[in-house]
Amino acid sequence: MAKVSVIVPAAGAGKRYGGKQNKIFERIGGDQPVFLRTLEAFTSREDVCQTMLVASEEDMSALKSRFGPNLGFMGVKIVTGGATRTESVRAALAELDPAADLICVHDAVRPCIAQPWIDAVFAEASKTGAAILGYPLHGTLKKVSESGVIDETVSRDGLWEAQTPQVFRPDLLINAYASPAPATDDAGLVEAMGHPVSIVMGDPRNIKITTKADLAFAAAVIKTLPKPKQTGYHHPFEEPRW
Fold first, then answer.
1. For residue range 104-158, what is the model confidence (pLDDT) as tens digits?
2. Pick from 25, 118, 175, 198: most CB atoms within 10 A?
3. CA–CA separation, 53 vs 109, rounded Å?
4. What is the domain extent for residue 185?
5. Is 229 among the domain residues?
6. Distance CA 25, CA 36 (A)
7. Angle at 65 between CA 32 and CA 40, to 5 degrees
8. What is the CATH number of the domain that holds 25?
């Protein structure tokens, strides 16, 4: 079983979400904070040797005062992130456990991740060195001008939406992040190096929470997620209530 170091970026400003606090602290269905639900998907796995939460300087005080004991119990290391996602992942890579065979990067605001999907992308990355979850696009795509007029209809053939987890051999991801170029996801940097990245079938329920409507959707779909199928996962401790 490959040992996996997990990086969970959570330092984004979340401007599209709005609200008085970072969306990572929002509670799913009024219950558990988004970021804790996400972290538990990985800290409960036997193949995960390290879990790092990358947070902004502004959120550090709240994280430590409100959730410090819980994060300590879960074995989560808190890393101070940067102004961009790229800088935040670089900061976590500097704290990487040398025992890790793979590095997994997963958005803190994707709490609807199921264990069988993690199993699948971990297995593919173990074989190929680079793999991500994704889902093929099904809707009709329109390219729209700044004035709000459709310029053209774009073929969806071969188009997939990238999801996380995105999982790589350490040497690949570290070398990819040595580049100064920014990227919207980790796979883009690895692709730019010329290394092939495999895509593993994900699920449309694996959403990234961007708006308040997404939070409500997440609360509804969590109960529908598939159950663990493999031995890389064990049931977490009883979910605390804050």
1. 999 999 999 999 999 999 999 999 999 999 999 999 999 999 999 999 999 999 9
2. 118
3. 12
4. 4-224
5. no
6. 9
7. 35
8. 3.90.550.10
